[in-house]
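Quick one: structure tokens for this chain, please?
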Amino acid sequence: MKPDPRRSMLFLLFVAWIITIFAAPLAAEAQAAGNLLRVGYLSSGDRQTVYTAAFREGLRDAGHVEGRTLVVEYRFAEGKLDRLPALVEELLALEPDVVFASNPFAIKAIRNATTTVPVVGIDLENDPVRTGLAASLAHPGGHFTGIFLDVPEMAGKLVQLQKEIAPTRSSRIGVLWEATATLQFEATKVAAQVAGATVVSLPVKGPEDFNGAFQTAARERAHGLIVLSSPALVLHGGRIAELALKFRLPGISLFTLFPRSGLLAAYGPNLPDMFRRAAMYVDKIVKGAKPADLPIERPARFELVINLKTAKALGLTIPQSVLIRADQVIE
């Protein structure tokens, strides 16, 4: 029996119609993927899931879906600062609509490479006006905006907290700081002097210097410890807490995650919240806002965290006036 030419033709037309139906959305999706907004994410540290997750959460809260409304290109130097220029070059080659820089080293690297690509940054160490990143906090005036900490104010609060928590161990305070963060250290030194305390300087470049720094603290008879903000320190809360306990130093930090690793206490900004806020800045920029017109923010949320297990190990009794103010008490 010979095939019916008309049936064969109808079958071929039907197949072509089916292919068109399914191929059209795929083609449209492929075309859209090529036109997605592109965000660069640059960090000098490791892939810190708690902060990266907070940034992604902020994007979702703003209505974005990675892979559908935008693409985020993640680059991490993993503590190797000499890798940052190459990572910046990679990101800029992708022609991002905006770059998020998660710490001072990342900010400096992207700043050295471009004056046109919009940048949103988080910095807990430097004054953006003093360092030339912005004309003013209210009107940055360039291609940069973000969230910065008021370093002198925080220095005073850490010194005050040290005196409240361990008043008998606050006459000589060891200050652990990353060796380039001079603004933070000088602000803390002044705050300590105003409070009648002597500062024992403990500068470090990385974790390889921690042992020597704590030995210096012991040799110089430091009775307490303040840990300042730095990308070189934030990844090593556990090691710092271990050494503080070993050398019998009541330690206080800006990083609220440190007491969860065993440090005595912390008072500082909620870092995940800052990453979510930074994502909101990114959203505004990809929707057409200019960094020059977006005021630089200060962190909105601060937390006091106390580790009572560490206090007991150090033979300290935390005053009730401090405990009732704590956002979290670890027992």
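Residues 13-33 have pLDDT under 50 and may be disordered.
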